[in-house]
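ERR on first pass: missing label on line 2. Operator R.T. fixed the label and resubmitted. Corrected input:
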Amino acid sequence: MSRSLRPLVATAVIFAIAYALAVMQFPSMFSTRVLGNFLTDNAFLGITAVGMTFVIISGGIDLSVGAVIGFTGVLVAVLIAWAGWHPLAAFALALAVAASFGAGMGLAVHYLQVPAFIVTLAGMFLARGGASVITQDSVPVNHEFYDWISDLIIRLPGGGRLSFIGLLMVAVFIIGALVAHRTRFGSYVYALGGNPVSASLMGVPVARTTVGVYMVSSTLAALAGIVFSLYTSAGYPLAAVGVELDAISAVVIGGTLLTGGYGFVLGTFIGVMLLGLVQTYIIFDGSLSSWWTKIVIGALLFLFIVLQRLIFAASTQGEKAS
Amino acid sequence: MTRRLLSRLANPQLLALLGVLLINWLLFPNFFRITWQDGRLFGSLIDVLNRGAPVAILAIGMVGVIATKGVDLSVGAVMAMAGAVAATLVVAGYPAPVAVAAALAVGLACGLWNGFLVAVLDIQPIVATLVLMVAGRGIAQLITEGFIVTFTDPVLIFIGTGSFLGFPMAAVIALALLVLVTLLVRKTALGLFIEAVGVNRAAASLAGIRSRMLLLYVYGQSGVCAAIAGIIVAGDIRGADANNAGLWLELDAILAVVIGGTSLLGGRFSVPLAVLGALIIQAMNTGILVSGFPPEFNLIVKAALIFLVLIIQSPLASRIMPTRMPVREASK
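pass 2 clean. output:
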């Protein structure tokens, strides 16, 4: 087994053990119905987390994704419900707006040379404020296109359903993994996260890659916003508050190093599923209150960070004096 | 001497605050009117001081952390936890001083935990404090069992809403902390050590600075400041709301510190200017409210402000306009 795959394997093993324990307690959790709902309920989080994986591998962070989800939801809902646009046209506009938004943040990160978290923090304020300025209410969307999409279901034996948005998330993960590991852009992102100075000396177009990474993140966040709008049939400016934290948690749990340069898109998938498992378990249990979700996610985050430290302390000993 | 004092006063932050206040005055002519009523001062300016105090207190703690090239994302969650502890204890019949001490101890413990992760386990500050940011609010809800714990304890309520010499208690506490921390970092070598660790931790360690203890100290200080802010906010609403107390205030605190000219790349910081930054943010908030604009504009104005500060601070700008303060090349 390749040494560099260890964190991925660790995450997968922990997910398998956690799922096995949950199934032992609630046998009905092992069903196509629960698995199908896993995909549907976490679709928007998963799509966001793919973009976040790219940002974090490049050595940055994007705090604006939750706000972009909220903004996209409102924009799409307003265009469809108030302006009478066709949903597909509204989706296209929302994706374009988000892509230019991400490009702006990428430009700021590269040319102002400031930490990404403060730039994307400003982006978060901007997107959340923009959504609230458009409307402060929840805007419902009633369109036959939405009904048509929600009827697109593959039924599985055992009562499970694979929804369109669940499959969309899986597709985004597969494309994301291919882009990360099989394209030139993907290698640039890894190089940039590993060491920006040597990356630029080796001829990696640092500016273009940085802008590209934040464009990918914002565009995927907008796609997640569209999925969220399909999922809830409404747009609300305060939707998806705090999703950036869940996405970052999923990425870290999936074995991606927050210092950049190292990580897996597929690991993020397991991370998202693990977060979903925690939530599903707490719903199944019934007696545990919802705040346990946060505590367990915090504990998992801690566990995986320490695990990463241990694995990497062994391989890069003496590199850092403290 | 007077010239030095004048050039010190004419810093961009103070001018910005005056500018914001002036705009507020143009939009709302009664902005500067202060009245004396029931033994305390009333008016929009006093309101700025009172409402700005929690963020100012958070910023006082955050300055030290950011000066070491770190960041503390958990302060909002720590506020919620401290408020929850104080409220639950007074409701359970403990005297207020015990409740306050316990809340401060919780803040210190949280800060030391963050410091332990950063200093000993060598985890990046954003991630290390993210753990408590996610889990802390859950723990706060665990303490209050999901309810908003309301209390009638006069001491806690006084901390949140009382007044001292006519000034709101929260502002007085913030001022006392400001003086204390400024003296601590500027009249001892502590500030120098913090800056040394922020510039280059390895070099500072080699020069004999105990950087681990120092990091534990700055994160501990940030935790205690967050706990104080948490007690004030709980006293203000006479209850501990685990869900909303201090929500997103960590971002305001970071913003205040950045406006105050503290470099996010570490090594340069100012406690009074960070407090001034908090007051600028609050003056804008109050201005938007009293002049009748929808409060949502706040976020957009804040975003514009961040970009403005970033552009001024960036190496690009310093190449175009050489300033008296040498800006280190970003080492990214």
